[in-house]
Structures are given as structure tokens and as C-alpha cells.
Specification:
Largest sheet: none
Number of strands: 0
Number of helices: 10
Order of helices and strands: HHHHHHHHHH
Number of domains: 1
Radius of gyration: 19 Å
Structural class: mainly alpha
């Protein structure tokens, strides 16, 4: 691949979407809390809060997928090895899928340990378990998105990363309002909305990275 000069404009084009994308991340939790707060009860707010914290801590462990994928893919891209850039993404997605399936299968033990480390009232724990029992099915999608965003960043397709976050937030907001305030699903509605948003993000991410999976090495993904 021909060398591309590093300019202020190029750096800004890569960095600005990442800054905006990171700025939208807290909106998922903020919207969930705001919507569930409309129920007028304290327990659902606490349940959503502690449930989100538990999942955040679980997913935080897999931050290496994003950083590692970015670094390795950038090296392969710099070396002009298009096949390796695709292979690295597929390995990352496979790791994510395996980890996600593990957490779905072992959710009972994982959540038991989490509530022993962070004990709460029986009412809040019961609601939090309902929330987590739904949200955990998004583990494969959420962890895979780490690998997908790492690949997009390495390929300088940061607008795709921003699109992922915007889509997930938009889907989450609309479904939160519908499920919780419209259908009265409560905590389960909040969890279901976020679950659908996570899988919607994965679908978009896979589409944005489709060339890597198709083995299309003719396309310059830096553009």
C-alpha cells in the first residue's frame, strides 16, 4: 500500500469521530436510568444501576480485544498484508463469541459471585437478576463489538465507530421509551431495549467490516 502523508487534516478526520463516539457512550446508562426513574420507585433504579455496573466490570476485562486488534491490524496494514488484517479480525470475533457463550452458560455462577461481592437488598437483587438474565444474552455481541471497533480504528474508518454508537443509542432510546413507558415492562423493558441495541450494533459492525470477512483485498479501507 502506498504511503499516505500524515497531515493535521488526516489526524483530525480519524480522531474527531472517536471523540464524539466516546462522548455518546454514557448516554446508554443515562437514558436507562432516566426512563426507569419514571416508574417512581427506588428499587428499579438501584437494580438497573448495579446490573449495569456488574456487566461493565465483566466487559472491561475484554478491553484488550479493542486495543490489541487496533495495534496488530495497524501493523499488518502498514506491512501491506491485507490477508492478515482480515484474519486478525476473525480471530478477535471468534474470541468474543467464545467468551460471550461462556458468560451466557455460566451466568448463574458469575452473578452469584457478583452479588456476594456487592450485596444489596433482596428486592433490588431480585430485580437486578431479572435485568441481568436478559442483558447477558448480549455478551457475544458486546464483546465482538470491541474487536470490530478495534479493526475499524486501525483501518482509519472511525466514522464507522461513531455510526455504531449512534445506532445503538438511537435504538436504545426509542425502545426504552416504548417498552418501559409504553408497554409497562419496567426493568425487563430496559434490559430488552439495551439487548436489542447491542445486537443491532453488532449487525452494523459486521456490515462495516464485511470486506475483511469476504476476503476482499482489493478495496482500500483507509478511504
Amino acid at each position: 500500500m502506498a504511503a499516505v502523508p500524515i497531515t493535521h487534516r488526516r489526524v483530525l478526520a480519524i480522531a474527531l469521530p472517536i471523540v464524539l463516539s466516546n462522548a455518546t457512550i454514557p448516554l446508554l446508562g443515562a437514558v436507562d436510568t432516566a426512563v426507569v426513574g419514571q416508574l417512581g420507585q427506588v428499587a428499579p433504579i438501584g437494580a438497573v444501576g448495579i446490573g449495569a455496573i456488574i456487566l461493565t466490570m465483566i466487559y472491561w476485562v475484554f478491553g484488550f480485544l479493542r486495543m490489541g486488534t487496533t495495534g496488530l491490524v495497524a501493523q499488518a496494514r502498514g506491512a501491506g498484508d491485507a490477508a492478515e488484517t482480515g484474519a486478525l479480525l476473525m480471530r478477535g470475533v471468534m474470541i468474543a463469541a467464545a467468551a460471550g457463550v461462556f458468560f451466557v452458560a455460566a451466568q448463574g455462577a458469575v452473578f452469584w459471585g457478583a452479588f456476594r461481592l456487592a450485596p444489596t437488598s433482596a428486592e433490588v437483587e431480585a430485580l437486578a437478576r431479572e435485568y441481568l438474565a436478559i442483558r447477558i444474552w448480549g455478551a457475544p455481541a458486546t464483546i465482538a463489538i470491541y474487536a470490530l471497533t478495534g479493526w475499524l480504528i486501525a483501518m482509519e474508518r472511525t466514522r464507522g465507530v461513531l455510526a455504531l454508537q449512534v445506532l445503538m443509542n438511537a435504538v436504545n432510546v426509542v425502545l426504552d421509551l416504548w417498552f418501559v413507558l409504553g408497554l409497562g415492562w419496567g426493568v425487563e423493558g430496559v434490559a430488552t431495549a439495551t439487548l436489542i441495541a447491542e445486537w443491532a450494533g453488532l449487525v452494523l459492525g459486521l456490515w462495516l467490516c464485511r470486506a475483511a470477512f469476504a476476503g476482499d483485498q482489493r478495496r482500500d479501507w483507509a478511504r
